[in-house]
Amino acid sequence: MKVLITGITGMIGSHLADYLKTQNCEIAGISRATTAYRMQSHNQQDYKHYAGDILDVNFLKKAMLDFKPDIVYHLAAQAYNGQSYEAEQTTYALNITGSWNVYNAVRDYAKDARVIPACSSAAYGAALTDDPVNEESPLKPVTPYGVTKAAMEMMGRQFHLNYGLDVVLPRLFIHVGPNHPPLTAIQNFARQLAAIKLGQQNPVIHVGNLNTSRDFIDVRDGATALWTLANKGVSGEVYNICRGYAWKISDMLDLLIKIADVKVTVERDPQLVRPTDEKTLLGDNSKLRALGWEPVIPFEQTLKDIFANWMERLKA
């Protein structure tokens, strides 16, 4: 099986590539030339790498014609909800125009390939309640990022219905794991705690809103879910990729502090508070489980791995 991953150097892309290697897939990746160095840090030197931008339609044409993929995982994006307020234009360009370019490139130059774009639970937005959302719940995004991901999903469905493109639409909930920038709450907390443990930061941890709850899934479980969809997903259908349990952010922080084994003072930083922040993000994964998938990595183990990863990174 020949698999092309856009955004292969990102957290999800790199872990997905590692897993697909165990499935004897031939793997190629697309990323900007400026991120190519990450290929070495994730032991991906043996993967074919196309250095370019998904906003460049000629580049995408050459990559599709050269590699001739059977599956295209489209993960390249401006992938951070919080950052989308500060980089709205970039978020709209990459996530909407870039995705339209990828869909077109597959339709025109790899028409038999299955496309699996990284849609997002951020598209649910104002539709979220304390109850789990399923694939039939309405999309009411409230962040620039959520808007772009809803549009990306709708484009995928449009290409499926109008052009017969084989598209499976996973809504990814919050994927967490090692080798991720400190741009999400878990990574930011773990980085600060590792810095405190190493004596690089005063024993004060800066936080945003701790009263929300989030459905976190280990990125390694997410990788197996994406492979399940490649093999068993129904074309044109949507699937939630989530754990099905929402951790309160304050409880997650307490567990990380326990793992770090340090004494800290917690201080709220207004700069870490978003203009809008959904109280609860909780997904129903029963549709994906019906295909034979289930998450297997305990959340505490995920946090231990993230903290250990930050200890290694800050020591380097």
CATH superfamily grouping of the largest domain: NAD(P)-binding Rossmann-like Domain
**What is the CATH topology assignment of the largest domain?**
Rossmann fold
Could you say how many structural domains there are in total? 2
Q: Largest sheet at a glance?
A: 6 strands, parallel
Unreliable parts: none
What is the straight-line distance between the termini? 37 Å
Strand fraction band? 15-25%
If helices are DSSP runs of H or I spanning 4 or more residues, what is the number of helices?
10
Supply the CATH class of the largest domain: Alpha Beta
Derived structural class = alpha/beta
- The radius of gyration is 19 Å
Portion in helices: 40-55%
The total count of strands amounts to 16
Shape: globular
Order the strands across the largest sheet as they lie in space: 3-2-1-4-5-7
**How are helices and strands ordered from N to C?**
EHEHEHEHEEHEEEHEEEHEEHEEHH
